[in-house]
Amino acid sequence: MMTVEDVRRVLGARVLVGEQYLDREVRTACGADMMSDVLAFSKDHSILLTGLCNPQVIRTAEMLDIVCVIFVRGKKPDQKILDMARETGLVIMETGHRMFSACGMLYEAGLRGGAI
């Protein structure tokens, strides 16, 4: 089992919102920029790695019970996105790693994506 804090350490990510939730369990991960792909993934207790910075990311994460969104490639979500995440109890992090690298690092650390 991994926690959001374990994921943060593996990626060297910076927490933008939700530091109080770093002890949450993470079972799987999904890396995508298309929210339709994320909807097809639909796992709970998962994290989402994405470079898409718009409110739809937060709405999708909320619908699927995703516990953490990590913006890759140094993407910076705006204040509206951060406020939405805060209201829904979502952890938001950012990392300079590219999505492929970040997913590989998490896979190497033992986190899996699971079958669709």
UniProtKB/TrEMBL annotation:
Domain of life of the organism encoding this protein: Bacteria
Domain DRTGG intervals: 6-106
Name the record gives this protein: DRTGG domain-containing protein
Species of origin: Clostridium symbiosum (strain WAL-14163)
